[in-house]
Design goal:
The chain has one domain (5-255): 4-Layer Sandwich (Metallo-beta-lactamase, Chain A), CATH 3.60.15. The chain has seven helices and 14 strands. It has helices at residues 58-64, 80-83, 90-96, 106-115, 117-120, 208-218, 234-238, and strands at 5-10, 40-45, 48-52, 72-74, 100-104, 133-137, 142-144, 147-156, 159-166, 169-172, 191-195, 222-226, 245-247, 253-255.
């Protein structure tokens, strides 16, 4: 049976890389792996495709990586870089002729309703149309077609948000720590995808050093770092990492 395929649609932090107006070596890099749109992934199996987050760059990502349909969206949390591509879901409504289920924590969905009232207030749009979305609170594992998605609570500063596990792969983006109760859901991983903001200390994200400490505790077989800022040049950073820990890049495909 064919394994699910995960595509990194974007691997950058909220500003993307290159950063507007920045002249650093990574922002000027000719290595395409250093050109990072905002973080999101698509997971596909058979004719079913799900998104984790609707990043700010969703339209460009979907065109570049040929995302022809979306059967569901799973939101990690409500911050702009993970949500603001939401309007680009409407083209899938037009083509698929049905609402798209969107799953998230209750507080995440409440923020999304507030952030995008034109989608959810029930008023008739004045041209252009609006996405047709069904917001569904996460209460445990969700199965969409052949894909089962397991939410994993993680800490993002003072917030509790969701990471997600599919088969033996976990996607953990904005993260500064793991509640003890979530650690069993991270056991036995073949692949951990872990948000690693950069080199400088940050209150709501793992730095590279703290990410390496978390990886040692979780002990997955392989790790891909994502949600990367412009202090982490691809070649220079990988040169200092163990062989089983690599930097993801936009367009990287993994079989789960």
């Amino acid at each position: 049976m064919t394994s699910p395929r995960l595509t990194f649609l974007g691997t950058g932090t909220s500003s993307g890389v290159p950063v507007i107006g920045c002249d650093c070596a990574v922002c000027r890099s000719a290595d395409p792996r250093d050109n990072r749109t905002r973080s999101s992934v698509a997971v596909t199996k058979g004719g079913t495709t799900i998104l984790i987050d609707t990043a700010t760059d969703l339209r460009a990502q979907a065109i570049r990586h040929t995302i022809d349909r979306v059967d569901a969206v799973f939101y990690t949390h409500h911050h702009a870089d993970h949500v603001h591509g939401i309007d680009d879901l409407r083209i899938y409504n037009f083509r698929q002729k049905e609402a798209i289920p969107c799953y998230g924590r209750e507080e995440t969905l409440a923020f999304i309703r507030t952030m995008f009232p034109y989608i959810f207030d029930g008023r008739s749009p004045e041209g252009g149309g609006v996405p047709s979305l069904t917001l569904l609170p996460l209460a445990g594992p969700v199965t969409v077609g052949p894909l089962t998605v397991i939410p994993i609570p993680v800490r993002h500063g003072s917030l509790t948000i969701d990471a997600f596990r599919i088969n033996e792969t976990a996607y953990v983006t904005d993260c500064s720590g793991f509640p003890e109760s979530s650690l069993p859901l991270l056991e036995g991983l073949d692949t951990l995808i872990l948000g690693t903001l950069g080199l400088q200390s940050h209150p709501t994200h793992f730095t590279l050093d703290r990410a390496l400490e978390a990886i040692e505790r979780i002990a997955p077989k392989r790790v891909w770092l994502t949600h990367l800022d412009h202090t982490l040049g691809h070649v220079a950073t990988e040169a200092r990492l163990p062989e089983h820990i690599r930097l993801a890049w936009d367009g990287l495909n993994l079989d789960l």
